[in-house]
Design goal:
This protein has one helix and ten strands, in the order H-E-E-E-E-E-E-E-E-E-E. It is mainly β. The chain has a six-stranded antiparallel sheet with strand order 1-7-6-9-10-3, with no helix packed on it. The longest helix has 16 residues. About 21% of the residues have low confidence.
């Protein structure tokens, strides 16, 4: 029972926090007809250099088809993050600036099909990229 109430509170907070995603304009990994699709978000290194250990990705993203949203969660506070959601099929997209200190944010998706990229750029310039096929 405690876990269900915690999940309910988390979803309630995520819904309330999603109001803080600020659109600036009017997301390639997996996708099928499932209701929930996890987006594989990867770190894009700024330059090529000596091989290093893979970076820990502080961002996770899940697409919820029924609600037409992408739930973005942050493992820790990495400051403001610019999110670019691009429909690669049509060439259109949306930009959002979100504050990672909220923990998780819901981003609306106004498409039912297509091939999308989701790019996350932190205030320090770190870039993370994921893809989604609907």
């Amino acid at each position: 029972m405690h876990m269900k109430s915690g999940l309910f509170i988390t979803l309630l907070l995520a819904s309330a926090i999603s109001m803080f995603a600020v659109p600036k304009d009017n997301c390639v990994f997996s996708g099928d007809d499932d209701d929930v699709i996890e987006i594989d978000v990867n770190y894009i290194p700024p330059f090529t250099g000596p091989k290093r250990s893979p970076a820990i990705v502080p961002i996770s993203a899940v697409y919820y088809a029924e609600q037409s949203i992408i739930e973005v969660s942050f493992l820790n506070n990495i400051g403001e993050v610019d999110v670019t959601f691009t429909n690669l099929t049509l060439g259109s997209g949306s930009n959002f600036t979100i504050d990672s200190s909220f923990g998780s944010v819901s981003i609306p998706v106004n498409y039912t099909s297509g091939y999308f990229s989701v790019e996350f750029v932190t205030s320090t310039g770190d870039t993370y990229l994921g893809y989604l096929l609907l």
